Amino acid sequence: MSEIKVILFDLGGVLLELDGPPIKNHWIEEELTHEQSWQRWMSSRYVKRFETGSISADEFVSGVVQELGINLSEGEFRKAFIDWPKELFDGAAEMLTALKKRYHIAFFSNTSELHLPRLLDKLKLADYFHNTYASYEIGFFKPDIAGFHYVADDLDISVENILFIDDNQVNVDGAVRAGMRAKKAVGLNQVEQVLREFGCLV
After folding, report:
1. Structure pTM?
2. Is the Cβ–Cβ distance between 174 and 143 less than 8 Å?
């Protein structure tokens, strides 16, 4: 089996706490599971277009509120969306700092102009990674295979030398189809378990 040279992380739900699923049940008066909320969110044409930099924040907010039937004003939804990512999980910074001494560390996140600049400024996320890949900057949205190939090409490394960790199985499946080793993990405890499984943590 090929040596792991790069560890590629998702952010939300993996290293970073989120304020629940993307679509809250009380917004739509419907009982969605966590997985169903993510499936509906990621299948939204407005989410994908916004998080690949194709439309403005105003177009995203108005479009997604209408498309998903969210019972919030546009202003209320924008604020809830901006506040959705919270803080790094306890211990994440220390884990990343240790890993960075032994591996090339990067993240690939479906994210937008309303989130990443604030997280980079507030949490200093860039300090923990050698490379950062935000969907709205590179124009690729997980689980599109082309996005994983873009990352590997930019890193100038074979896909089989990359371990990818994400909290959504659909994204893990996309990485596997692209040729990476990949595993689902929700929260830091599961992330550390995966890293131990692949021999990246002792």
Report:
1. 0.95
2. yes
